[in-house]
Design brief:
2 domains, six-stranded antiparallel beta sheet, 282 residues, D-amino Acid Aminotransferase, Chain A, domain 1, D-amino Acid Aminotransferase, Chain A, domain 2, binds N-(5'-phosphopyridoxyl)-D-alanine
Length: 282
Amino acid sequence: MSRIAYVNGQYVPHNQAAVHIEDRGYQFADGVYEVFAVIRGKLIDPAFHFERLERSLREIKIEVPLSRRSLGLVIVEVLRRNRVRNGILYLQVTRGVAPRDHGFPAVVSPSIVMTARAMALPPDPHKFENGIGVVTVPETRWRRCDIKSIALLPNVLAKQDARDAGAYEAWFVDEDGFVTEGSSTNAWIVDADGNLVTRQTNSSILSGITRRTLLELADKAGVHVIERSFTVDEAKHAREAFISSATSFVLPVVRIDGEPVGKGQPGPVAMQLETLYRRYAV
Ligand code: PDD
């Protein structure tokens, strides 16, 4: 079966789907995106993703091009045409096509692209059982990481550093030695006192939808949560560490820069949250 993409109001074969070379997304990374997890044909937390998309658009002064209802209808159609029951839906909005000039064009309409791809979701439990390694890299991103911008070069380089080191993810570390987040995931630890800790949301990290739902689930389950920064050293000596995202769910971190975290195996809090999230999502 051939894949279908949605491009500016049309459903086109994926291998022919294209935007103009003067699309500002292509030339300036002038756009934002969302990645939705799809399980049994249903989006996970769609309202939160729409809310974040609208916020990202507002922050970069692009008008919301389609209502939530219209976006929802297109998403359902993209999933149907690609026969995706479990996988991801990618949605990107850029400022649109205009002759290259840094300032906003006087007249332009946003470009919207959506693709869907089948993927093993919920993720393979084996990944969970073994845990993953992360490497740390200096924070080189801009100061508005709360915007889900398509300008992902530092994230791309960081992820490749992780892969080159045989790790799964890279954690950005700010000038004061505190972990901000992963290249495409949020970062968590269980500290020496047993508190679940994740960095507070401000412009230094993306407010992850999975993070948000996990905080609620943890709270309901009586897990004590603190939203605060933690250093790499604290994470290395923490009882547990893990990452979260729409596509990773909850993945225990068992090694940081080659050193074991806690006992060097997935811990009970990560396991509990993974179970709660899986039940919530599936
Ligand atoms: N990444 N932090 C960053 C920098 C991210 O890119 C992401 C998501 C997250 C987790 O957010 P959420 O829980 O809403 O997925 C945190 C997506 C999955 C991606 O770029 O593929």
